[in-house]
Amino acid sequence: GENVEQHPSTLSVQEGDSAVIKCTYSDSASNYFPWYKQELGKRPQLIIDIRSNVGEKKDQRIAVTLNKTAKHFSLHITETQPEDSAVYFCAAIHASGGSYIPTFGRGTSLIVHP
Amino acid sequence: DAGVIQSPRHEVTEMGQEVTLRCKPISGHDYLFWYRQTMMRGLELLIYFNNNVPIDDSGMPEDRFSAKMPNASFSTLKIQPSEPRDSAVYFCASSLMAGGTDTQYFGPGTRLTVL
Hints:
The structure holds two protein chains of two kinds.
Chain A lengths: L3 E4 L2 E5 L4 E7 L6 E7 L6 E7 L4 E4 L2 E6 L4 E6 L8 E11 L2 E6 L3 E6 L1
Parallel strand pairs in A: 2-11
Antiparallel strand pairs in A: 1-3, 3-8, 4-5, 4-9, 6-7, 7-8, 9-10, 9-11
Chain B lengths: L4 E3 L2 E4 L5 E6 L6 E8 L3 E9 L2 E4 L8 E7 L2 E6 L8 E8 L9 E2 L3 E5 L1
Parallel strand pairs in B: 2-11
Antiparallel strand pairs in B: 1-3, 3-8, 4-5, 4-9, 5-6, 7-8, 9-10, 9-11
């Protein structure tokens, strides 16, 4: 089955710095890669996603890059703010013909110091 | 739309008791997922349904767990009998695949504590 490794497990940055979280996956059939943000005690919420036919996607301060050959994808947050502090999860999903098989990374706790 | 609704939000029970968690997906969504989240194991997919039919239950830990989706607007996850190691946050999520989008919307979760 799919295996998703996420690093680092904890990331501490100063407000205004950039933060990068990386994930690797094992199943070349995975074709959809969402990123979720989960604040303490809250539900995971989608912040950005990318499909296997795209190499990069950006939404304001957040961007995701995908390298299918190397089987890794990364989340980039620029100009971090204290409200960005949360746990971030990546996922690799094989979505095809009615089948949907998600595997999540273990999460990265991002702490943004004011 | 109110989003995905789960009940109860918190459940405390004693070992051996039956626990039933409930989920109402977003109206019109054709996929429904049940997840379990713990510090030790992270976020795990337990089972998912497509148009009320269970597609993959390989993540269900054992026979004590069962899930049903009698109609498009309601699903249950049942644990019988419950054990302390079942303590976790259980999330339900739904998505609309027919439109070509895979975005999952999570419910607020049920925090289960088995004493």
